[in-house]
């Protein structure tokens, strides 16, 4: 069966009520027939639910679908994407271990690696993710873990996933990839050999801007260690969120195709716009890693960036005149969202750090939604025209 079919048909076991849509299992604990069954389930001699911090039918259904989509042996769900990222590192690393990570990481991942893990003696070296020689040079005797994101946020830089998988195999390291922007519809890093694939399910997996969630899919032995960490520290996904997210996976294929189609058309239209210094999108021939994008991504994804002439002032003017796109620090919604990274999500970075990851004053991230693309193109064109006039007058 195709993955689309499985994403719709994998379901928690039907109850005696013969429901068609899976019910919500809002229960903190589960019952045992008798004390002997409780003992046997705790001793793992018998399969069975115990307590919703450990497992829950809605959460398990969501994880089963994610592992199927990511082609991994096992998986575990979390309350948020950051809980997933932290549990991957907290669960697998110990004092004295070293991490090599790409500079172009989600902001909170950088905070974990630079401010939180060092408290327990875990250190990190950051490298320019697209330069494989830097990754290799940064590997030390105590290096255990490689961590990156592709495409990166907001620079849309790509990591050569096949090459980095070869590097981690050569040095016998654990490679974790944050696959949030691409989703398993566009790329499945485990097929190249990635050990862990991490998601903020808050983004395209929900896809409708409703709930937070996270998930790690990967090698069974690693997930087992992370599961131990998670069961006892408690960053579990709620059954309600799992129910919402599992339903969302039924339409992930359709949504990612439409998001990518809309984004490609908007990027192509904006590339000609005189109000912009640059447009970046993985499937535009002008993207510096276009060949790699075509090799490892099935579609271009939903995110593009534009660099507006006139910096923040012009961006602000444009944002006032947009009638459809929302101004919000999120992505992965049916609604098109614009974000100005330099003043919001990446405002804590120094001037040099911003320059290193390509965050200029005029850079705007557009997370293209599912509205009719003709409407989006017309909306950005009129807003940019007014922004040009406005900032010229100003
Ligand atoms: C949003 C995001 C996260 C964090 O996810 P939350 O669900 O907000 O905790 C991590 N990585 C990437 C790439 C993201 O976009």
UniProtKB/TrEMBL annotation:
Pathway: Amino-acid biosynthesis; L-methionine biosynthesis via de novo pathway; L-homocysteine from O-succinyl-L-homoserine: step 1/1. One of its GO terms (molecular function) is pyridoxal phosphate binding. One of its GO terms (cellular component) is cytoplasm. Its EC number is 2.5.1.-. GO terms for biological process: 'de novo' L-methionine biosynthetic process; homocysteine biosynthetic process; transsulfuration. Pfam families: Cys_Met_Meta_PP (PF01053). It comes from the Bacteria. It catalyses: O-succinyl-L-homoserine + hydrogen sulfide = L-homocysteine + succinate. The keyword Amino-acid biosynthesis applies. CDD domains: CGS_like (cd00614). The modification N6-(pyridoxal phosphate)lysine is found at residue 203. It is an enzyme of class 2 (transferase). Its cofactor is pyridoxal 5'-phosphate. Keywords: Amino-acid biosynthesis, Methionine biosynthesis, Pyridoxal phosphate, Transferase. Gene3D superfamilies: Aspartate Aminotransferase, domain 1, Type I PLP-dependent aspartate aminotransferase-like (Major domain). The keyword Transferase applies. Catalyzes the formation of L-homocysteine from O-succinyl-L-homoserine (OSHS) and hydrogen sulfide. Belongs to the trans-sulfuration enzymes family. MetZ subfamily. Homotetramer. This is O-succinylhomoserine sulfhydrylase. It comes from Arcicella aurantiaca. The lineage of its organism: Bacteria, Pseudomonadati, Bacteroidota, Cytophagia, Cytophagales.
